[in-house]
Amino acid sequence: MTLLILLALFGGAGRRGDDKIAAGYEYRKNSVPYQVSLYTGYNFCGGILLSGEWVLSACRTLFLFLEVRLVEHNIKVPEDTEQHMSARFIRHPDYNSGTQDSDITLIKLSPPATLNSYVSLVALLTYCVNVRTMCQVSGWGMRYHDTLQCVEVPLLTDNTCLEACFFQMTENMICAGFMEGGKDSCQGHSGGPLVCDGELQGVVSWGHGCALRKKPGVYTEVCNYVSWIQNTMTSG
């Protein structure tokens, strides 16, 4: 049974200009068991399963009916293993729609997800990741890809990020990508995971265009929000 929720996922659209992961590759089916799709007739944005009851995201939009979908691979092909559920969301109290600072949201599932061989949890970070670490971003985009895609990108230094993003970065953001362009997360991947060394380090947030030269993708730095995440899930 599919349950729908009216989510007021706040703020404006991201600054992405394309609907795909650029220069990525298709993931093997069921190889990202923590990947979540927030779906409204198409994949609108992504999410990350933290527990049976909680999804982490950073999706920003107007009022829309969304399904929370687990165990998706081909977004257009229904499968018996899929789980669809409703939710309520809790955005970070310091979220700023102008700067996208604290662009991070917790979504509580109802009923809870069933954890099995197809659905499992992402590992929340145990340390703040170092620059130049290669990380994986996954998602479908809004309309371009039917199957789950991945791209590998390196974390960049704070100075590189500040210069590349016209000093719009805050201390709660990290950026990743290739300065020559060509590989990037894009529109429709907001809220998706940036996983480094097997641990969740970032949430796809925003960027200038998609895979452009000297325009890396920007991610909410999960390292700064571990206490908020844990406290909210405990009290929520």
Q: What is the fold named in CATH at topology level of the largest domain?
A: Thrombin, subunit H
Which structural category fits the helices and strands? mainly beta
CATH architecture of the largest domain: Beta Barrel
Largest sheet: 7 strands, antiparallel
Overall description:
There is one protein chain. This protein has 236 residues and is mostly beta strands. Helix content is 7%, strand content 33%. It has two helices and 14 strands; from the N terminus they run ββββββββββαββββα. Strand 12 and strand 13 form a beta hairpin. The relative contact order is 0.24. Mean pLDDT is 81; it is low at 1-23.
Brief overview, please?
With 236 residues, the protein is mainly beta. 7% of the residues lie in helices and 33% in strands. The protein is globular and about 45 Å long.
What keyword list fits this structure?
single chain; 236 residues; mainly beta; Thrombin, subunit H; 2 domains; disordered N terminus
Please describe the topology of this protein.
Layout: E1 5-8, E2 25-26, E3 35-39, E4 43-49, E5 54-57, E6 63-70, E7 83-91, E8 105-110, E9 134-139, E10 149-154, H1 158-164, E11 173-176, E12 193-196, E13 199-206, E14 217-221, H2 226-235
Antiparallel strand pairs: 1-6, 2-10, 3-4, 3-6, 4-5, 5-8, 6-7, 7-8, 9-10, 9-12, 11-14, 12-13, 13-14
